[in-house]
Amino acid sequence: MVVKLYAKPSISAGGGVVALVLAEKRIPFEYIVLDYAGKEQKGTAHLKRNPFGQVPVVDDNGFVIYETRAICRYLVEKYPDHGPSLLPGPSLEERAIFEQAASVEVTTFFPAVTKLGWEMLGKPKRGLEVDEAALANMLEDFAAKMDVYEQILRKQEYIAGNDITLVDLFHLISMPAFSIEGTANIMGDERRPNVIRWWKAVTARPEWVNLRQHGIKSII
Ligand SMILES: N[C@@H](CCC(=O)N[C@@H](CS)C(=O)NCC(=O)O)C(=O)O
Fold first, then answer.
1. d(Cα 108, Cα 199) in Å, to the nearest integer?
2. Separation of alpha carbons 119 and 220, rounded Å
3. Which residue, 77, 146, 181, 182, has fewest beta-carbon neighbours within 10 Å?
4. Rounded Cα distance, 61 and 3, in Å
5. Distance from CA of residue 122 to its chain's centroid?
6. Cα of 190 from ligand 1 centre, angstroms
7. What is the model's pLDDT at position 13?
8. Domain GST N-terminal, which positions (predicted)?
9. What is the DSSP string of 86-132?
């Protein structure tokens, strides 16, 4: 039985990154779209898969798991022989640095970018007024965080070392709209050449490019 990925009708956020990891790891999967308009995510069947009534959820032959980052960690450990490792090296120190980067992504990067995304992109899209003063503060706060990323990425290729790992891909959860070429070019500040180099490498993963350009069917 192939892995089932339960997700939203439009592939985005966590569902997109789980799909990316499945594709990177060459794990065949079925993409099951929930009827969001009909609130299927809050229905009895889905609440059994995820009591929070959210997606993404993965069902791997009867083992059901939710939370994007936890799903991805499970998949890479379960299928070590498929595709790139995406895990840190075996030493305690390499694993500790990976955990450090994972913690920074979830507690520092993700909240900052989610707030920015709403103010810069979400509000204009919904015809709401942007709070320019708040936006300026968010951009300043984000820039300070990215200055630290620049320091880290000056010394190494990826955020947890010299090889790509899941943590690099986790940064895509909040970022579909923030491509370097996009209108909200928050990753493309030329004062941070190593952030640009890193972000180009992460967003140029062929499965990610296919997913963004041609949709989910192109990577299943
Ligand atoms: N922390 C969760 C967040 C999941 C989440 O926010 N899912 C959204 C879609 S991107 C959802 O299912 N929302 C529906 C709802 O809350 O009713 C993860 O990383 O998987």
1. 17
2. 33
3. 181
4. 7
5. 18
6. 33
7. 83
8. 2-83
9. -S--SSHHHHHHHHHHHHHIIIIIHHHHHHHHIIIIIHHHTTPPP-H
| Two structure tokens written together for 150 | 């620049």
Atom 3, ligand 1: which residue's CA is nearest? 67
- 56 CA: nearest ligand 1 atom: 20
- What residue type is 47 in one-letter code? L
d(CA 51, CA 187): 35
Q: Whose CA is nearest to atom 12 of ligand 1?
A: 54
Q: What atom of ligand 1 comes closest to residue 12's alpha carbon?
A: 10
Q: Is the Cβ atom of 165 under 6 angstroms away from ligand 1? A: no
Q: Return the residue whose CA atom lies nearest to atom 10 of ligand 1.
A: 13
Tens digit of pLDDT for each residue in 7-19?
987 777 899 999 9
Q: Which residue has the tokens 């990323």?
A: 149
Could you tell me the two tokens for 206?
């062929």
Give, rounded to a whole angstrom, the gap between the first and last alpha carbons of the chain.
15
